[in-house]
Specification:
The chain has 313 residues and is α+β, with helices and mostly antiparallel strands. The chain contains 11 helices and 10 strands. Strand 6 and strand 7 form a beta hairpin. Helix 1 packs across helix 11, helix 2 packs across helix 10 and helix 5 packs across helix 6. The longest helix has 20 residues.
């Protein structure tokens, strides 16, 4: 994962301090690219433990076109919990304790962390048990899954992933193997406008490669997940299309380290990368749309310990 560690060093040495919508502040660079040869191993971070099960279940959630976190909560996947919870605590119906800036406060204030944990557990319990509550406060709006599988324009609904697979199979040399999650007409309705905004696939010598354009990149918390998620997507689409994997090319717009992640990044940079794991997919007669986490296996993952950091919501 030298490419990723080089990015961290580049931002620390050359980044500009900027303000952001969360009020946390970042050190940022604009325009950066990393390349991962997927033949050399699966690019899951080894300088800190990264939860592959969460990455895989989130990607399968996207591929099924889902936008409600009830499914993720049932899968014990908390990746999107804060975004749904934020919608709840900012609503007129919420009458509990003040949850302003809950991500940072829960790490810095033990008393608040205990209150926040109770409120979050109550929120998730209601999502699971109350259909109407889940419909109002579990849905994150027209985020990735909706755009990937049900892009709406006028009276037409476009399944971009299905069209992508058909295009790769029937016209592999096309330069139009593109999926976009950035829908200007629906951005305002999304809990979080897409950070990984558009990706393009490329077939050469029987190998499938993918380039992602990511407009906004939280380098410490988000980017390790994004790298692994899109590497997994390449493997899945390649399996579906009868191809081998090639490269994952990761192009970043605003690549930033939050100012309250600086010490965590420096700790990670002090660690020596380890051998990359291997990915196994048991597709059999299934479509990738029907896969479960049980069909995806990671072998030989031996990372350094996890490093905690607050999420900026």
């Amino acid at each position: 994962m030298k490419q990723y560690l080089d990015l961290c060093t580049h931002i620390l040495e050359n980044g500009t301090v900027k303000q952001d919508r969360t009020g946390t502040g970042t050190k940022s660079v604009f325009g950066y690219q990393m390349r991962y040869n997927l033949q050399e191993g699966f690019p899951l971070m080894t300088t800190k433990k990264t939860a592959f099960r969460l990455i895989a279940t989130e990607l399968l959630w996207f591929l099924k076109g889902n936008t409600n976190i009830r499914t993720l909560i049932e899968d014990r996947n908390p990746i999107w919990d804060e975004w749904g919870f934020e919608r709840w605590v900012k609503s007129d119906e919420y009458v509990g304790p003040d949850m302003t800036d809950f991500g940072r406060r829960s790490l810095e204030d033990e008393d608040f962390a205990a209150i926040y944990k109770v409120e979050m557990e109550n929120y998730k319990k209601q999502i699971i048990e109350d259909d109407q509550f889940a419909e109002r406060y579990g849905d994150l709006g027209p985020i990735y899954g909706k755009q990937w599988r049900s892009w709406t324009t006028g009276n037409e609904v476009i399944d971009q992933i299905d069209a992508l697979i058909k295009g790769i199979k029937t016209n592999p040399d096309s330069r139009r193997h593109i999926v976009t999650a950035w829908n200007p007409s629906e951005v305002k309705d999304m809990a979080l406008p897409p950070c990984h905004a558009m990706f393009q696939f490329y077939v050469a010598d029987g190998k499938l490669s993918c380039q992602l354009y990511q407009r906004s990149a939280d380098v410490f918390l988000g980017v390790p997940f994004n790298i692994a998620s899109y590497a997994l997507l390449v493997h899945l689409i390649a399996e579906e299309c009868g191809l081998k994997v090639g490269e994952f090319v990761h192009t970043l717009g605003d690549a930033h380290i939050y100012l309250n992640h600086m010490e965590q990044v420096k700790e990670q940079l002090s660690r020596t990368p380890r051998e990359l794991p291997t990915l196994r997919i048991n597709l059999q007669d299934k479509s990738i749309f029907d896969l479960t986490i049980a069909d995806i296996e990671l072998e030989g993952y031996d990372p350094h310990p996890k490093i905690k950091a607050p999420i900026a919501v």
